[in-house]
């Protein structure tokens, strides 16, 4: 059932794959509603379907069945160009592997997020500098990824994701490659961004981190949601 304020919804969404003679139900009839300003964590073991669901919400993949709507627009009805625009302007994404361009500086990596949405070069430089300063990386702006710690690289990745001022931040195992101290720092940063009004959806296998950080925790098992807990329900 949809709730007042929902602006991202998955309704009976499926994503099935063929593997030789068998069918893999990576996401199996999942319904999930996200309200603007929520921080929702999706947890589960490897293979539970949580990352597949996140990719569907991001418009990186299309569902086999069901529908996903953003502000009452159906993602499955969007053209490839419209989906690209959705990802470029509405959605920020952070991944476990950081995915920074090795030959670019931190500044260059953040600017790259605005290259395809027609932001003027001067404005790109200004916004990237502001984003890095906001995340405590002003003194690392001219450093390349190899010269940064894991925690610093992930903060650059977050800066790249939020510099375009998206409406939703999708984080896929953002602390998976970090030690406990850096994991706590990144989780705290995501919580701060959410407190400032950004909607955050985080996929993680760390149930304790999810429960401590997010307003709502959704648990998946074999492609289905099996439990939801939190004050946002």
Textual characterization of the structure:
With 233 residues, the chain is of the alpha/beta class. It has one domain (36-51, 80-230): Rossmann fold (3-Layer(aba) Sandwich), CATH 3.40.50.300. Helix content is 33%, strand content 30%. The chain has helices at 50-58, 80-89, 106-112, 121-134, 150-162, 180-195, 207-213, and strands spanning 6-19, 22-35, 39-43, 65-70, 73-74, 91-95, 168-172, 199-204, 216-221, 224-230. The strands form two sheets. It has a six-stranded mixed beta sheet with strand order 6-7-8-3-9-10, sandwiched between helices. The protein has a four-stranded antiparallel beta sheet with strand order 2-1-4-5, with helices on one face. α3 (106-112) crosses α4, α3 (106-112) runs parallel beside α5 (150-162) and α4 packs across α5 (150-162). It is globular, with a radius of gyration of 18 Å. The mean pLDDT is 91.
In terms of topology, how is this protein built?
Layout: E1 6-19, E2 22-35, E3 39-43, H1 50-58, E4 65-70, E5 73-74, H2 80-89, E6 91-95, H3 106-112, H4 121-134, H5 150-162, E7 168-172, H6 180-195, E8 199-204, H7 207-213, E9 216-221, E10 224-230
Parallel strand pairs: 3-8, 3-9, 6-7, 7-8
Antiparallel strand pairs: 1-2, 1-4, 4-5, 9-10
Helix pairs in contact: 3-4, 3-5, 4-5, 5-6
